[in-house]
Amino acid sequence: MLRFLSKLRNLSFLLKERNNYQNSSTKAQQLTADLNKNIKLFRQVLGESSDVIIRQFKLARGGTSAALIFLDGLVDKKRIDEHVLHPLMVQSHTPLSGTLKKLKDSFIFIDDISELKDFGEIVSAVLEGKVVLLVDGFASTLVMDVRDWERRTVDEPDTEGAVRGPREGFTENIRTNIALLRRIIRDPDLTFYNLRLGEKTKKDITIAYIKGVAKDSLIEEVKYRLNKIKTDAILESGYVEQLIDDHPFSPFPTIANSEKPDKVAAKLLEGRAAILVDGTPFVLTVPMVFIESFQHPEDYYVHPYFGTFMRWIRYISFILSILSPAFFVALSTFDHELIPTPLLISIAAAREETPFPVFLEALLMIIVFEILREASIRMPQSLGQAVNIVGALVIGQAAVSAGLIGPAMVIVISLTAVATFIVPPLIDVGTILRFVLLFGAGMLGLFGLTIILLEVLIHLASLKSFGVPYLSPLASPDTAKLKDVIIRAPLWSMPHTDTFRQNRRRGNKQ
């Protein structure tokens, strides 16, 4: 074992040394004033990939050789032809000074353009989708941002449906997502901080917050955790979520995610920070508290009475989704006296010919439900709905007809299945809790169920998200903060909506 660990350590050391050597060799390469040598240098670094385009041409009147380097599919070729190639090949003069400033200021019609000399930065710019202009006789380049690629349009997200409210959802383009937040929060204090993660992917990351509303300590902590990430690849925001999580071994999420710009904007106005990752429509928000999993943006767009009612429906649904099978197993196996006699007789008669104990029935039915749920998600959408509905009906009816499962168990699992999807942020943790509670109830009945629930409560009380207690504001002695927890109070009575309160008072006086 020690020999294996020693070999593994030596291997990791060699890989690290190789990466350091490659990075140092890339940094050691520098541009020269010879255009042909520079083109050869780019070909060595970028390889012979078919999407690397090197367009050589000559400047007008002077006949100076030049070249454009870019990646096919990541740039707008029409803008390159109209605003770069045409002015340089038809209108430009040979630059006389020692820099490319004349070309940049007088001939190239691109707003985002800069002059770079560092070869590593220039290669990174090409890989990002920018265009590099090389001119013979100059050891520097002009880097132009004419990026353009196929992107998904802004439409309604599938994961967070709503009857009332905006139908816009984030896309995979980070610039589009920033614009969606800008359109909602038109405040100069809305700030975006950019960085890049992933040695290979070099993924663009943006931290969004409102200066003066979000605490400086929170923003510094977010920046610190993100800058500490050392990894080769960031493919989705889930990578970032797992790498900066306070409690990576907890089943409960301590970092929220959403596809809805209005939901993220509301959290920014509450003083939170949002983390946008290029290439995914899911935006992370921190800190997160447990109670926000039951809150929905639509709660604030409807009447307070209906908003409060729907919130309590979510509370009840989550409780039913994790407790129904376990509670039924505990009563049927250990605590018969808690079931009314007529109902107990009915359940016993229905289960008279079933071959399996109640615990095994519940376990099998839950596993079948999870199989159907996974199949409906992974299959094409047109087939997934049919598998989910028809499969559940056919399997449930066949199991009852064959005498394998009691009718009462089918009702319990069906209720559990419907209640599971009422609170999407807690589907994953609800699945885990359902199995854990079921095993506790199968071994010790209601006593085992109570012990596990107490353990879960203690675990929730120990969690924090970026320094904020996970059970806030339930654990806070300030009852004013419960106006958005137990009930959905009117907007004018919320602690953070002074404008609504003032308008309400003015209306009462009039």
For the biggest sheet, the summary is:
5 strands, antiparallel
Shape: elongated
- As a whole number of angstroms, the C-alpha radius of gyration is 30 Å
What is the number of E strands? 12
N-to-C CA distance: 82 Å
Which regions contain 5 or more consecutive residues with pLDDT less than 50? Answer: 1-27, 497-510
State the share of residues found in helices, binned by percent: 40-55%
Describe it:
This protein is elongated. Helices cover 49% and strands 12% of the residues. The protein is built from 17 helices and 12 strands. It is α+β, with helices and mostly antiparallel strands and 510 residues long. Residues 1-27 and 497-510 have low confidence and may be disordered. Helix 6 (174-184) packs across helix 9 (261-269) and helix 12 (358-378) runs antiparallel to helix 15 (427-444).
Lay out the secondary structure:
Blueprint: H1 2-28, H2 35-46, E1 52-58, E2 65-71, H3 77-91, H4 101-106, E3 113-116, H5 119-128, E4 131-135, E5 141-144, H6 174-184, E6 190-197, E7 203-210, H7 216-227, H8 237-243, E8 256-258, H9 261-269, E9 273-277, E10 283-286, H10 304-333, H11 341-350, H12 358-378, H13 381-401, H14 407-420, H15 427-444, H16 446-462, E11 464-465, E12 468-469, H17 498-509
Antiparallel strand pairs: 1-2, 2-4, 3-5, 4-5, 6-7, 7-9, 8-10, 9-10, 11-12
Helix pairs in contact: 6-9, 10-14, 10-15, 12-13, 12-14, 12-15, 15-16
Quick overview:
The chain has 510 residues and is an alpha+beta fold. It contains 17 helices and twelve strands. The strands form three sheets. Strands 1-2-4-5-3 form a five-stranded antiparallel sheet, covered by helices on one side. It has a five-stranded antiparallel sheet with strand order 6-7-9-10-8, sandwiched between helices.
